[in-house]
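A protein record pairs a chain with a discrete description of its three-dimensional fold. The following entry can be read in just this way:
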Amino acid sequence: MGGFCGVISKDDCVLDLFYGTDYHSHLGTHRGGMAILNESGFQRSIHNIQNSPFRSKFEHDIPKFSGKVGIGVISDTDPQPLVMCSKLGAFAIVTVGYVDNIEELKKELFEQNSMQLQFSTTSGMVGPTEVVSALIATQSSIVEGLKYVQQKVKGSCSILIIDETGRLYAMRDRWGRTPVILGKKDGAMIALMESCALANLGYEYVRDIGPGEVVELTVEVDITLVEPGKRMAICSFLWVYYGYPASSYEGRNIEMTRYRCGSALAKRTPTVADAACGIPDSGISHALGYAHEAGIKYARPFVKYTPTWARSFMPSDQRQREHVARMKLITIPGLIKNRKLVFCDDSIVRGTQLGKQAIKLYSEGCLETHMRIASPPLLYPCKFLNFSRSKSEYDLVTRRYIRGHEGENADVSKYIDAEGEPYARMVEFIREKLNLTSLAFQRIDDLVKAIGLPAENLCTYCWTGKDVSIDGEGYKCPCASCPHANAN
């Protein structure tokens, strides 16, 4: 995935940028970077953060940095920020998203000789930020270049740019799949993805940038340079999993949404249990909502060792991912033995980790393990955001089941309907494979209600296969008037 932060200030911006970027560390574990413009030009630093967090890697750089405008990034793709030299002058850039047609764009740019730019860093290959930079540089201005990126990129791309004159531009992805949020305090403005960073840095929330909108930030105001589009498809998985609990996107808080998800699971799929439990970290909020609605205790039979272990989905190697998952969770036997437990988690991807956790629970004396998943079954690999390390659609346990029962060219769409027999058989297969007493997934309509945005504004592609940018519409809520925008 990844996240970014940009600050422009009448005074030095370095500390706000440093801490603002750090608040996005949960969104990636590969690289972090900052670029700051001052009288001497661009200062930049990039570090590998796979084995050490952003803050500890960059705290030694901070005394060396100075400037009134800067951008920072947590990246799971290429080394960023880039500082580019082009016919538009020098500029620093960070990107977040996923360029699905990167090979096509690279070929086109090389044929046009547009990739003959002076990159100030190289990863041994042309990465997405380099390609986006080259697209921008083919146009007559940075703003025209940003508009061109929106037209050319398939997938998603949100951008922060500083030009050599000190102008700070922010652009949200064309369909608004990722959030870009503005904040303000006396003499400074900030653009970032996680709104939870605002309050502790002294900023007040201003607004969410609209889908495809381009703004220029000054120390006092934001100026819209490209009007937002009329259609939004923000990623629903932000609320389910990878968004930070204290953040809000489009006015919908993540922690409160997860409580509502858990509550919906308790209403829809109740079970007799001694306690509700969350698989750390994101499952905890869902479990609290479940426990409250079900009127049962909340317990923590799994405790996560947080000081050193990263999120398990981040390593690209499956064996390493499983090792991380095994090492980071520690059981509390006294909360497990002779108990019937219902567990909440955000999703099931491969299922390997969850199956091993169930075996561990039984070895500790658990009588029953009931699993409640806060999202619907994942049927389609995401092609818009880089939040999963899956190499193939058959990394998904659902798709392996479908292939095993119907072959390579099966009709996946019939497994979407939670009332249908194919769906029921698929869920039962997963339950049995993972050694669970019972298993239930969130209904799509319940998830939409929990988020509280109109269904047509949410991307649910990974569950439904509906792509708003192709189909013109996403998931259709069964409610007559879709009144969910009243939720908070």
